[in-house]
Amino acid sequence: MKLRIKIFADGADLEEMVRAYRSGTVQGFTTNPTLMRKAGVSDYESFARKVLGEIPDLPISFEVFSDNLDEMVGQARKIAQWGPNVYVKIPVTNTGGEFTGRIIKVLSEDGIKLNITAMLTLDQVRWVSGALSETTPAIVSVFGGRIADTGRDPVPLMRDALEILRARPLAELLWASPREVLNIVQADAIGCHIITVTNDLLKKVPILGTDLADMSLQTVKMFYDDARAAGFHL
What structural domains and CATH numbers belong to the chain? Predict the structure, then answer.
């Protein structure tokens, strides 16, 4: 199945990131402090520079981690200097719920490429769109998977988000936290620009469009082979 959407690998395992990069199946990368902690990263900058040494020519997002807006600005400026392919991730609010629009505006107007993250509402998309510079590339990350976790269909919201971002042609909508390969198809169908995919989900991408009868037979063979391998007897 031919896709228009760009697939970004989401993770913080350097070996897996390099493997995805060399496979040519992804067009960019995202990570965050939670993924880094899970992967055992202890030195943030050292890890980031190792990644950029291996992946010098595809977009990679690294996130600020201060909760103070002014400190976020300093961290963002430092992160942006690590490489020309770096996007700096800024959360849409701090932990107190304060909208980060004023620093998004300053950084974006200074030509720093941003990835605004942790977004789940259309109001947030409107606020961010209004804060972004018209002349600086940006990524607007809306967490479609988390929206779906609440029992809501993310497709209409993501479609509306695309309409809002028409006012910012250099801003790309990213469908974050997909839960299944179907989400890639859904995002592609509405014209979403980017979707993040974890390594586990990335492994499933090659079966997109597989004939269902063939998949049924593969499943039957798997059950049969596993029963034999287990030595089951009745």
Answer: 6-206 (3.20.20.70)
Catalytic residue among 89, 203, 204, 221, which? 89
Task: Output the tens digit of pLDDT for each of the chain's 234 residues.
Answer: 789 999 999 999 999 999 999 999 999 999 999 999 999 999 999 999 999 999 999 999 999 999 999 999 999 999 999 999 999 999 999 999 999 999 999 999 999 999 999 999 999 999 999 999 999 999 999 999 999 999 999 999 999 999 999 999 999 999 999 999 999 999 999 999 999 999 889 889 889 889 999 999 999 999 999 999 999 999
Instruction: List the alpha helices (DSSP H) in 6-111.
Output: 14-23, 33-38, 44-54, 69-80, 101-109
Strand partners, 63: 89
Active site residue 89: yes
User: Nearest 5°: phi and psi at 175?
Assistant: -85, 110
